[in-house]
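FAQ: What does the model actually see?

It sees only this:
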Amino acid sequence: MARIERRLDSSIMSKSEYGWKGYDIKFNIPIRYENLYKEFISRHAKIEYYIRKTGDVLNHASNVKASMTDWDSHKKNIHIDAIAQKALVLCQEGLKQKYPLEIADCWGALYTKGEHTIKHHHWPFTWSFCYYVKVSDTTPPLIFHNMINPQDKSSVDMPIYPKKGDMFIFPSTLRHSVPTQETDEERMVIAGNIWYNFNSTYNPNN
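And it is asked to produce this:
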């Protein structure tokens, strides 16, 4: 049985005894890692051009405090869509029963010095993904929060230092963030969310 600890999270806590409550739940979750550099390197320049040309559409209004494109960039750029469709395939890979997953949204982000992403999650989506177009040894990591240290079972933050072409797929409930960028180098990423659409006419089992 999962061990459940009550957490007072002001962002979702109801003041009454009813409604949404915040809990920390300790259980095993899947996170998928692939390096797709060879498959998508030919698209990087065109993706980079699109992200630069589009600019900061959201004006730092989201959790991403960096230059961010539209939420539906996969519908506007075939190269970004190719990344998103690959994430869809990887989500289904190895499953005996296929489900009608689809891309809910997808965007590009460009981080420069002083920019960061606030700790957050992507619930109520099912899966979230990120693909790294441009990173270096000095750009900040992706941090997964509330991970369990295998040695002493304490709750810790787990930094991941991605390479170009890395893709990570993780449950949308997993809290994550990006620390403030301290260098002048750029950090460019494609990110998105995937969900089930049981009304879809798409049959992935055919």
